[in-house]
Amino acid sequence: MSKAAYKYLADAWKKPDRSFQSPNWHRLIEWRAGESFVRVERPLRLDRAHALGYKAKPGYVIVRARVRRGGLRKTRFDGGRMPSKMGMLKITQKKNIQWIAEERTNKRFPNLQVLNSYWVGEDGLHKYYEIILVDPFHPAVANDNRINFVSDPANKKRVLRGKTSAGQRARGLRWTGKGSEKARPSVRKSKVREGQRRYRIVRKNFNNKL
Fold first, then answer.
1. pLDDT of residue 75
2. What is the pLDDT of residue 45?
3. DSSP secondary structure string for all residues of the chain
4. Each residue of 24-62: pLDDT tens digit?
5. What is the C-alpha to C-alpha distance for residues 55 and 52, in angstroms, rounded to an integer?
6. pLDDT tens digits, residue range 62-79?
7. Would you kindly state where each structural domain of the chain is located, as residue ranges?
8. Quick one: which of 16, 13, 52 has its CA closest to 134?
9. 155 — phi, psi (to 5°)?
């Protein structure tokens, strides 16, 4: 059975060519010398873009974002003894790099809504993502039942609330079952419920003593 064209594209991006002769190598050199946010005419990974909701129609915008890579860099101080709680190692951030790229892109284009994003490359200093943006006020978007949910005021600034795929992954909503009991509806809400439960237990014990 022969594979479809999109399947060949997906297989090619699973292990991209990293040699000096590959187009991806020269592409990263140009991206690194360019700006951090660049609007492109068409998506580089067509299969991934369509899978995440992109349509080749008015109202859709593709922006390539460049963000730094690596963990939280903290300078090591030199003075006296070395405390055990220095706070340099094993300090990780709650947001992933892809979510940060989406938020920065949304701040750069405030009149558009972030639909999703996908990885397109990385070098020694940066990671590059293509962000799918949608104009919620465009007639082609407002009349499409599959995408007009972004026109609802309730979905305004959805990327800042972790509603995209990268945001849901950072919030722990990709997993279910054992180990993810406190991930829904949110970590903050779970802490509030736990505090309320403990308060009811303490109040019940106090009333029983009376």
1. 76
2. 93
3. -PPPHHHHHHHHHHS---STTSHHHHHHHHHHHS-SEEEESS-SSHHHHHHTT--SSTTEEEEEEEEE-SS---PPP-SSS--TT---SS---SS-HHHHHHHHHHHHSTTSEEEEEEEEEE-SSEEEEEEEEE-TT-HHHHT-TTTGGGGSGGGTTGGGGT-SHHHHHHTTTT--STT-TTSSS-HHHHHHHHHHHHHHHHHHHHHHH-
4. 888 999 999 999 999 999 999 999 999 999 999 999 999
5. 9
6. 999 999 988 777 777 777
7. 5-174, 178-210
8. 52
9. -100, 20
The length of the chain is 210
Cβ atoms < 10 Å from Cβ of 181? 9
The rounded radius of gyration (Å) of the Cα atoms in the chain is: 23
Looking at CATH, the fold of the domain delimited by 5-174 is given as Ribosomal protein L15e (3.40.1120)
Q: Can you give the pLDDT at residue 1?
A: 64
Residue 34 phi, psi (nearest 5): -90, -165
| Type of residue found at 173 | L
What are the tens digits of pLDDT across the range 83-134? 777 777 777 788 899 999 999 999 999 999 999 999 999 998 999 999 999 9
> What pLDDT shows up at residue 31?
95
The vertex-5 CA angle with 4 and 6, nearest 5°, equals 95
